[in-house]
Design a protein that fits this description.
This protein has 177 residues and is of the alpha+beta class. It is built from four helices and ten strands; from the N terminus they run H-E-E-E-E-E-H-H-E-E-E-E-H-E.
């Protein structure tokens, strides 16, 4: 009986290790010292960091060299002491201005939320650039006096394929102390 318990426990530990190794396969991790955060993303994505080290851009490789719209996710941390996340969005991402500036603008969804770290606001909208329909996901998380901004963009045709990946990367963000 004791051997069976040890075997069961050992089998459980090996299985658990296998599951964790599968989950981490294919992921890259990036630490941004300027924003004091770590983010995980698919290792097949290309990473660029702005000269100041503040803006992180992740690009999904494309097989189509004629793509006008690049599949990408940008991350930036902005100091915001003037109010809450809703104030930040009203001032910096005014929906009425977006409607005036983008052809065929359509707000797809808008969500306000909160988690144990801070306030969250995100929305999706579509619009036309050149001859292409584009969808942008804007995700904002206010923690203390910082707003972590995520802007994901892809063609409207590809958005449903990548939305969950974008959200997985966004939610993988771990903020240092």
């Amino acid at each position: 009986m004791e051997k069976r318990k040890r075997f069961s426990f050992l089998f459980f530990v090996v299985l658990l290790g296998f599951v964790f190794s599968l989950q981490s396969q294919g992921k890259a991790s990036y630490y941004n010292s300027a924003g004091n955060y770590t983010i995980n993303y698919p290792e097949s994505w290309e990473r660029e960091v702005g000269a100041d080290g503040e803006v992180l851009s992740l690009f999904i490789p494309s097989d189509n060299s004629t793509d006008v719209i690049h599949k990408q996710l940008q991350v930036n941390v902005i100091r915001w002491e003037e109010g809450d996340v809703e104030d930040f969005v009203k001032i910096n991402f005014d929906i009425q201005k977006l409607k005036r500036n983008y052809e065929e603008f359509e707000l797809i969804s808008s969500v306000s939320d909160e988690d144990e770290q801070g306030q969250i606001r995100y929305f999706e909208f579509s619009y036309r650039i050149y001859d292409s329909q584009v969808v942008t996901l804007c995700y904002f998380k206010k923690i203390g006096d910082d707003v972590y901004t995520f802007l994901a963009m892809t063609s409207k045709d590809d958005y449903s394929l990548y939305k969950n990946q974008f959200m997985e990367v966004i939610k993988s963000m771990d903020i240092g102390d």
